[in-house]
């Protein structure tokens, strides 16, 4: 069991604790659930962990213990990622970092550089990439099941910001609505990077240009809650990506369609254990989670080895933790990690995500002119 | 029974014959199923109709009969609509015209002007507007069920042109792939105008600007088979419209989402008897065809007065025919038509459709710059 | 065009008029919409037909005309079928008879014998057998796609009688609730025979024994509105059939599952254009209406030769009319009918249906003891 | 954290370890994963637990430790439950017991009596009762949303035994196929008791009589893999329950329909986060997991407090663990437990389940005669 420390609290901390436990590979030992001493103490006590409210103290304190934390889950607001992630990596600790990797492209590159320099593992929490059916989609595209990809469509719609909640006391919403803390384009950092990563993950190719319309559906809102993007790929494929966090009535609707020369793939989050392959001819085929016939990468991401039992976010994140564990153990044992454990995204993908947001913001400022999306550089 | 003549043949003629019969208001009597004498004769014989292969002869011949045709269904390739529609209208015959109204904006305006001058009724075959649940969507938006509309999304994807079929002997496909006959932007004329009309119909407001990416998914194709549009509305609403006739594996996928301040509406063609209302709070609601609680306009468009029995294209088109009949009968009887019969689109909507295509083509030529969509003028 | 007369009115008459028109093979010319002279006249006038209110007069009157009716659609309450059907057949007219064939097994046999003696065609209006995907299911079972059938499940649930409507003025409901007119077991005659026929149609084998629980869900109701049956087949297959017309909130829910040694088939009326094949291994397959790869019998029952456009009751009944027309024309032309036109049920199937109901009633009277279902004998 | 010991291994042990961790209330410390010393040691090592291969030694060993196990998860084959559960309870340990409670009604009563005598908590692993939407269904029925219940339908179909796997080396399948170890009626003990419990849980009323057909779909099989039951309730409601573990192509299909005087409820395992309320009039309503408007009992069973994120088996079992923890903590703290923690089934429900199976077996032996289902007595 790898000993885990948490930095950050709130809803997402519960999710990470559950996922780490489900992975069977991590044991939480310490937490800095808040910078406020009383809240940090309460959080740690609730989960039976050692309490900290200061990162330096946490790193020093844990390093001094024989059974101190060996890896960190970083769950704080976006603008804090850069300094905290670098500190963690420089302390030689492996990192599971919430997305986006950082609030800006420059920050993301700095984290990536620190990860490289440290030799530590960094897994980025695009939980969707831990879903078996997205891994199956990647496998099907890779083996040519739909031929060359010609067009893609991604939708990510949530309703959490459909009302004017700018004065809310809810901490997670508050920092998200503040561009100084969340970054310059809320909806793309929060939702759009998920879709961007999923497309790159499935296609094995990243969009290299973007045309963007950004704005706010809620009148008077400063933060960006609506994005309508066109994407272009070097291969000639093109696509659209629509995201909004102000879509009233939508329950975290994340849908992907990949259109190739010989058929389409379709997936959506509300049916995350199902993947449609619609061929040019003959009946559509429905692949389901748990089927023994799935690709090895999908099977590795399957935690309940039976069909007919939905899995969800906990299991998806557990796969990311399991992948991180495999990288850590392989390094300890001086062997190559299982290649199937390398499907989880890392710092490079994080830099790509911020590059994508950066290009979209530039495009929107130029009234939708096509802008080049930088590579991880 | 109103006596109907058909101009044009092929798949769509069967649809119109069935729909006219289902409407209970029309009796087909004559047809010019082709300009080729032998094929025209065969077509007419197969349906027990008087045969013509020349429009002038048809108009003259029928006018000379005591029980000659009183209305016309015009089903020919787009570029023929202008001259044929004007001839029909100038002969004083009411018209049900396949969409688009014409191949170009200028042609559409000419047809519209002729319709105005003639005093004849003209119904445009956007069959979707004859579907009860789209009429219910219009009623729900109109009564404020989702508050002010903030964003819309339309997808229309078919796979009929996913392969290189440019050399096909299939007549309907052949003229569609020829810009000289189908018009300058196949995918928008064929599919996009349906989505454009459905949005205007449901919202009661038409988009006034567009930013367009147009192209071909199939390498080497001259015709446009892919369109990715951004739409803007004077009210502040915005949206996207993606259409392709080269989406392998997609079976006439037409989907609409209307996002308002207090909820969303969702509809798709594969489930045309269902309409989702997803409110900001509380359970989602599924309205179904045949429910006695539907709005009057939806009930008028319901042909099977029972729930649980899917209806489809025949019934949708039958509603357009029934609406046309009501306009004709009202004029004969010198009374106002039932207002519920005025939901079917006419020449104005046809001009709007071509104006929309025209603006999109201009935008695409200007690399996606926003272009104003002309009103019906 | 075959000239059609209607006997009976109400909702179902509209359906038959539409379906006959869609078939392209029949032209309605006469109707006895009611035994009441004024209502019969109004019905006929509304549809432009010659009016009758007495069957003898109708048969004599039409026989005397050079263009008198050549076939009859019989749409009256069950207890009238016997005398009316026999009179029609003895007049040498072909018959499309609403189901059930008659109100009792004895009556059904009498109609069947009259049909045999007359040499006329008789098609029984189990509209579901006109649906392409049920024909596809039959084809898949026949070609061994799921191996030997082991178990079947049928559900048919409607909500029309969920409330106490015994005093309703609605004519169709009134006679159905009266065992003297509808027959002894409302729910099986009305809904159960559809499910029974669909199972026999798909399997190519009829259940030969039944154990039944019959009753009323609505307190105080005399008519039977609930049936829970076990079925046995000579092949060893077994199954269940649950039907109720008092299932509040259910919208004509008709669902079938066929379980074989190598997979299952699933179909339901709310998605009548879809058929699931769930194999023992590998992805489930979704067959859809209009696919060019369907079996010939399914393609013959397809009226809109495109995928993605739902069809429904009108088209299903139109297929029965088209099959009837083919039998009539083949006889006229002294040739064998297209074998694909013989999938529509006839008098034998009608006798089987009444035999099934008869056995279920006997079983229920014996507290669910297994009873033999008589063959068409 | 309550210290947990596991008795039993295999697939289900992974599920319980994950669920216990997700509950946030239990810490596994010891395991008897097998009676074979080497396999028991391997199992314990893989999960970092103290190893035992003998129950007496485990109970004694843990009792001697200051941090020994305080509760037990019992996951062994059915016929072992009686002796093991009683030993655990007599040792004063709380128990989470896999279903069925025991292999026979007599054994189940003995376990129930031991639980009563011990004062320990016993939670029975009907995981479905930990699903929020089943708890919501119970709340809706309880508050009269569909009026008095008139009929119920339950289906539970799996394909795991669709082939002849009698000679399989798979341990879990092997003991299930052996009536001496699994009990007399495999399909009812394995699947039927889930459906029976869910019906009683939702209705708040248990069926009091049953008519059963039992058999094997797979030729030559000794074990029962097919059950077709009729159920009766004292309130006058009636219903059906069909279960099979030999339904080729079915992926753990568990579906429930509750028909009341004013509407129906529908739920199925493949969409476990969704619950349909179909009222007699007006649109159907879809309740979804995570909605803030759900009943308190459903909210307590919700682990991810956001809509749009599917949960599954891990979370459902975690709710059972959380309920067990609350009972344990309440006893420790000498207070009444949260009433919402009492929705998980216990020994009484386990006795009811075995009584249900016992009555069904008697009915089938009497050719389906109605048999009384004993109460928990």
Provide key terms for this protein:
homotetramer, 377 residues, Rossmann fold, Dihydrodipicolinate Reductase, domain 2, 2 domains, 9-stranded mixed beta sheet, 15 strands
CATH topology of the largest domain in chain A: Dihydrodipicolinate Reductase, domain 2
In which order are the strands of the major sheet of chain A placed? Answer: 14-13-12-11-7-10-9-8-15
CATH architecture of the largest domain in chain A: 2-Layer Sandwich
User: For the report, how would you describe the main beta sheet of chain A?
Assistant: 9 strands, mixed
Descriptive account of the structure:
The structure is a homotetramer of 377-residue chains. Chain A has two domains: 2-128 and 320-345, NAD(P)-binding Rossmann-like Domain (Rossmann fold), CATH 3.40.50.720; 130-306 and 351-372, 2-Layer Sandwich (Dihydrodipicolinate Reductase, domain 2), CATH 3.30.360. The mean pLDDT of chain A is 95. In chain A, a hairpin with a 2-residue loop joins strand 11 (253-260) and strand 12 (263-268). Helices cover 38% and strands 22% of the residues of chain A. Chain A is globular. With 377 residues, chain A is α/β, with parallel strands linked by helices. The longest helix of chain A has 20 residues, at 313-332. Chain A starts with a strand and ends in a 5-residue tail after the last strand. Chain A has helices at residues 11-23, 37-47, 55-63, 78-90, 105-118, 132-142, 171-176, 179-182, 186-203, 296-300, 313-332, 347-365; strands at 2-7, 26-32, 50-51, 71-74, 94-97, 122-124, 149-157, 209-215, 226-232, 238-244, 253-260, 263-268, 274-279, 284-288, 371-372. In chain A, strands 14-13-12-11-7-10-9-8-15 form a nine-stranded mixed beta sheet. Chain A has a six-stranded parallel beta sheet with strand order 3-2-1-4-5-6, sandwiched between helices. The first copy, chain A, is built from twelve helices and 15 strands. The interface between A and B is large, with 45 and 45 residues.
